[in-house]
Amino acid sequence: ARLVVLISGSGTNLQAILDACKEGSLHAGVAAVISNRREAYGLERARQAGVPALAVPKRKEVDRRDYDRALADQVAEFEPDWIVLAGWLRLLSMEFLGRFPGRVVNIHPALPGTFPGLDAIERAYAAWQRGEIDHSGVMVHLVPDEGVDAGPVLGQERIDFQPGEPLESFEARVHELEHRLYVDTLRRLVTG
Ligand code: GRF
Fold it and tell me: How far is the CA of 26 from the centre of ligand 1 (A)?
């Protein structure tokens, strides 16, 4: 299967996917990596892996829909089977999503219906400290429309908080789970 991966930052989820493709544990190939930020380290990870790496920055004077249409055109060039959002931090409009119905997936470091949007890990940790929750988790879902971190769930796994655990330790466990869950979920998708 051909994947195009969209990133905005460090790209550790991308790295997990690149590694799995290379070692053959994921029968897919990353056709391109596209970032909305030139300085995203994930673009360097793509270059290191010999994968086309494109920066498509959103200039403020460009209308959001025009940007999404141009982005979709760039993505379509690579003829992807799946568009994989991995730390992609822009909301995608139907200008983009409508071009790839049923084929855009996203990972979010919280369980379905909880902590949508940015800083989900920190917000879950704070809720635990307030005694509001005793576990959190990670989910992979389809992105059918402009709902933030919402859509049919393809994979999810819970993480229990450990008493006295500092945020950094919890965050590291969340990212480890993300990397495993994304590869496992994509494996199920590409094998149909
Ligand atoms: C990850 O927690 C991802 O789920 C969130 O952004 C974080 C950074 O991911 N959307 P990455 O290291 O850039 O893959």
Answer: 20
